[in-house]
Amino acid sequence: MTGPSELSARSAAHKGQRSARGGGGRTPTQSAVHWTEREKYGFLLQLLECPEFLLPERLERRISVEKTKMAAYQLEQKIVNENIRQMDGTDSLHRPELLESLYSQVSHLDSVLSSLEGQIQVLEAVQRSLPRPTHGGSQHDSGTDGHEPDSLEAMRTVLSEGPEPTPGRRAAPCSPHPAELEPAVLLHLERCAHRKTRRQLQLLQNNARSYDSSGRQQRVTSQPESLHGGSEGSLTGSLETLASLASSDRLLDELKLREMTIAQLRGRVLQLERARLDNIPLDPAREISRLQSSVVQLERVRDELTLQNFSLKSKLSEFTQQLSSSGVQGGSEHDAEQQRRIGELETQLHNQRNELEQLRADSAQLRALEARLEESLSRRETTERYLASRQEELTVLKLDLETLQEENTRLKDDLSRVLRQEAEHSSRLVRLSDCESELGRLQEERRLLADSLLRERTLRKQYFNQMEELKGRIRVFCRLRPLSEPERRQGGAAPIDCADPYTLCVGGDKGQREFQFDRVFTEDTSQQRIFDEVESLVQSSMDGYNVCICAYGQTGSGKTHTLLGDEQAPGVAPRAFRRLFELAQARAAQTSCAISTYMLELYNDRLVDLLAPAGARTDEKLEVKKDRRGTVVVSGAALLPCQDAAHLQLLFERAVGARRTGATRMNAASSRSHLVIGVTVEATSRVNGAVTRGKLSLLDLAGSERAAKSGADADQLREANAINKSLSALADVISSLAAEQSFVPYRNSKLTMLMQDSLGGNAKTLMFVNISPAQYNLDETLTSLQYASRVKQITNSAARNADNKEITRLKNVIAKLRQRVDCGQPSLEERDEG
Ligand SMILES: Nc1ncnc2c1ncn2[C@@H]1O[C@H](COP(=O)(O)OP(=O)(O)OP(=O)(O)O)[C@@H](O)[C@H]1O
C-alpha cells in the first residue's frame, strides 16, 4: 500500500523531474533546449514537404494556432497540478491510483508543451528567415504570386546577414537566426525558385517548338508565296522566336546561377549535417553519412546531366536559329538532314530527361529512406531517452524506498518511544491530578490554619499583653554578682541571702532586711537565663511598644556585664539584637520590618553620638526633642538603618569601643557615662499596610558611688557629681510616676528627657539592680536595693493603689502617734529602734 509520505516523496521527485525538464515556470528558450535538434530538424523537414506553409500568412496563422494550443495545455496542466496539490493532502492516502494517473497526465502535458514550444520556435525561426513581404508591391520581382521569394539577391541577403532594412520600414527585431535552420530553408526556397524557372524555360521551349513546327508547316504550304517577295507573318514569327530565344538565354543564365547557389547551400547544409552527426551515436551517423554521400554523388551526376542538358539545349537553340535563318532565306537543301539531326538530338534530349527524371525519383526515394531512417533513429533515441529516464526514476525510487524504509524504522522507534512516554505521561497526569486535589485540600487546610494562626497570634498578643500588664509596666530584677578575689581579701561576702526567687534577705547592723523584686538572680545565674526572662520584652518592642531595659547599681556591681557582656558571655543587648531580626524574619510573610539604631553617651550631662564617624565627631550640641507622635528623637545624632543582626552588632561594638571609661579603685574599666542604645522597629503589615512603631532602649547607667570610696580625682569627682545628679533626677521621675503625680519632672536631666517615652505611659520598663556581694560594699548595696524598691512600688497599679492606701493609713497612724508623743508616748522610730 502506498503511504502518504511515500506519495509526497514521489510527488516531490516528480516535481523535481518536471522542473528539471523545464516544467512549471518555463520560458520558451528553456523548453527549446529540451526539444532536441533532431526533433526540430524532423519538424522542419515535415514543414518543407508542404511548401504552402512557407507563405508568411500561413506561418503566422500556424504559429498563433500552436500558441493557442499551448495556452490550453498550460491551463490544463495547471488544473492537474492543482489536483495533485490537493491529492498530496489528506485524500492521497486513499487514492494512490488517481494520483498516479494525474502524474502521468502531467508528464504527457509536459511533453506536449515541450513539443509545441519547439514547433513554435522552429516556425518563428522559419518566419524570421523568410524575406518580409512589402506593402504596396513586391520589392523583388518574383514573377509569381508576390509571396514566394525567388530573387537571388533576396536569398543571398537572407543567407548572409538577414534581410536589408528597406526605406520606410524598420529593420526586423534583432532575433538571432538559428544557424542550422537558415541554409535548409533557403535551399528549399532556392529549389522552388529553380523549379519555377525551369517550368518557364520549358514553357518557352514548348512555345518555340510549337512555333517551329507551325513555321515548318507554313513553309511547306506557302513556299511559292515566300519565294515571291517574302511573307510578313513569317518575319513576325521569326522575331518572336528570337525574343523567346533571348528570354530563354536569360532563364538559362538564371538557372545556372540558381544551381550554383543551390550547390553552395547544399554544401552548407552538408557541413551542418556533418556537425550534427558528430553528436549522433556512431552507427546511425555512419549510415546517414553514407546515404548523404550517395545523395551527393547522385546529385552530382544529376548536375552533370543538367549541364549536358543545357549544352544540348543551347545547341538546339543554335540549330533552331540556323533553321529559322535558313527559313527566312527561302529554305536549304539540308533541311531533311537537319531535321533528322534535330530529331536525333531531341530523342537524345528526351532520353537524358528520362534519365534525369529517374535520377530524381531515385533521389526522392533516397530522401524518403533518409527521412524514415531519421524517424526510426529519432524513435530509437526517444525510446532510449525514455528508458534512461525510467532507469533514473527507478534509481531515484530505489533510493526513495531505502530512505523511506529507514524513515519507517526510525518512525516506528519514535512511535514506540512516544507510546511509552504517553503511558508515562498519562500515569503522571493521574498522579498530577491526585497531587492537584491534594494541593487544593492542603491549600484549604493552609488557609484555615493561617486563619487560625492569625486568630491565635492575636490571642497570643492579647494574652501576652495581659500577662505583661499583670507583671506590671515597670519590673525590677535584682542580680547578685559573684564575689571577686579582691573582695574576698577585703572582708569577704556580706550576709546576703536569696530566700526565694523573688526575695532577697540582707543582714546588716540594723538587722536583716527583706527586699521583694520581680525576680532575684543569684551569682550563678547564666547570661542566657537572664535573657530568657527578658525576651518577652524584646518581642513587645516588635509589637509596637516602647521598651526600656536599664541597669542600675554601684560601680563594679555588674551592670555592663549584664547588659553588654563580653565575647564569651554576651549580655542582653547582643542577644536582643539577634532575637529582633529572628522575629522580623519569622514575620516576613505578614510584615516588613525596618530596623534602625542610634547609640549615645551621656557624659557630664552632655550627649555624644557614638555612631558618628570618628573624624566627624564634633562638639555640636545634640538636642533631645519629641516628634509629633511623642517619640523622643535626638537631633543631630545618626539614626542608621540596619540590614541584619550582624550589622547592628557591628555598630554596637563600634559604639561600645568609643564609650568613655576610666579606672577607679572599684572597677578597672569603670563606665564613666550613661550609655543609651535605641533600636527603633517600624513594622508594616503586608495585609493591610498598617504601620506599628516600637522602640527598644537599652540603658547602661554609670555607677552610683561615693566619691571618697572610689578614690576619684577632681575630674572624676565632676563626673561622679554629674552621674549622681542624673541618677537622682531618674529617681525623682520614678517617684513622681509612683505617686501618680500629674507633673513628672522629666526635664530635670538629659537622662530623664531621653528616657521620657520609655518611662511611664504605655512604655514597659525593666530595671536590673545589680549588687555586689562584698561586705565592703554593703552600704552601697542597701542604697541600691532601697532605690530599686522605690521603683518596684510602681510596677503594678493595683498593688500600687493598695500600697498608697496603706501608706495613707500608716501616715494617719504616725500622725496619731506623733500626737501621743507630744502627749509623752514613744515615737514610731523609737519603737523600731527598741
Ligand atoms: N554575674 C557576673 N559573673 C561574673 N563576673 C561578673 C558578673 N558581674 C560582674 N562581673 C565582673 O565584675 C567586674 C565589674 O563588672 P562591670 O564592669 O559590669 O561593673 P559595672 O557595674 O558596669 O561598673 P561601672 O559602673 O564602673 O562601669 C567585671 O570584671 C565583670 O566581669
UniProtKB/TrEMBL annotation:
Species of the source: Amphibalanus amphitrite (Striped barnacle)
A Pfam family the protein falls into: Kinesin
GO molecular function list: ATP binding; microtubule binding; microtubule motor activity
Subcellular location: Cytoplasm, Cytoskeleton
InterPro entries: Kinesin-like_fam (IPR027640), Kinesin_motor_dom (IPR001752), Kinesin_motor_dom_sf (IPR036961), P-loop_NTPase (IPR027417)
Protein name: Kinesin-like protein KIN-14E
Keywords assigned: ATP-binding, Coiled coil, Cytoplasm, Cytoskeleton, Motor protein, Nucleotide-binding
Polar residues bias locations: 206-224
Region (Disordered): 1-32, 127-150, 206-235
Domain Kinesin motor: 473-794
Name of the encoding gene: KIN14E_0
Species lineage: Eukaryota, Metazoa, Ecdysozoa, Arthropoda, Crustacea
UniProt-annotated binding residues for ATP: 553-560
Top-rank lineage group of the source organism: Eukaryota
Annotated SUPFAM superfamilies: P-loop containing nucleoside triphosphate hydrolases
Biased composition (Low complexity): 225-235
